[in-house]
Design brief:
There is one protein chain. The protein contains ten helices and no strands. It is mainly α. It folds into two domains: 69 residues, Tetratricopeptide repeat domain (Serine Threonine Protein Phosphatase 5, Tetratricopeptide repeat), CATH 1.25.40.10; 97 residues, no CATH class. Helix 7 packs antiparallel against helix 8 and helix 8 runs antiparallel to helix 9.
């Protein structure tokens, strides 16, 4: 079994991240130096780096988290979401494949199903699945905000398609806009 960071140090890091998320990279790097096999630390590092616009390093850290703990569902979801918003659709689908083993009523499964609908320009499916996932997700409320942004972008496109109009392939535009919202100004 891998040597993991103790719960008190992890909770202390999480509390610090809530108050100053971008200022904790050095701290998490120190913990990774002590506990290099702790996937949670690599996941947190990847999340912080993505939030501060250091995308290449974020991708490496999220990938490492999934490599260390292939069943770490939230890390796998976030890596796939990062890949999708970076234009790596095939990689995202591959990364998410393992999440198909989650129960049908799991919020991450609903989110993945919704994002798969987005890839297919099935905007009604996006709205339905992401909305169901939001209703199920009490574990990670900030993720609900991200999914709600996608729903809000898809509503007019679903209405347009329902009215018989051509929605066209808007997926790339939605993902590009979402990725830009995630980048600091």
């Amino acid at each position: 079994m891998a040597n993991l960071c103790d719960e008190a140090a992890l909770q202390d890091l999480l509390a610090a991240m809530r108050s100053a998320p971008n200022d904790q990279v050095e701290r998490v790097d120190q913990l990774i130096g002590q506990f290099p096999e702790d996937a949670r630390l690599h996941f947190l590092r990847g999340s912080m780096l993505a939030g501060s616009g250091r995308y290449i390093e974020a991708h490496q850290s999220l990938s490492r988290a999934v490599q260390l703990a292939p069943d770490f569902a939230i890390a796998r979801f976030q890596l796939g979401f990062f890949q999708l918003t970076s234009g790596e659709t095939a990689n995202a689908l591959d990364t998410w494949g393992r999440l198909d083993g989650l129960p049908d009523g799991h919020y991450l499964r609903k989110f993945v199903d919704g994002l798969r609908c987005l890839i297919r320009d099935d905007f009604a499916g996006v709205i339905q699945n992401l909305s169901e996932g939001i209703a199920l997700n009490t574990e990670n409320p900030p993720l609900n905000n991200d999914m709600q942004l996608i729903i809000d972008r898809c509503r007019p496109l679903a209405a347009q398609a329902h009215d018989g109009g051509e929605a066209g392939s808007e997926t790339a535009l939605i993902l590009q806009q979402f990725a830009q919202r995630q980048r600091p100004n």
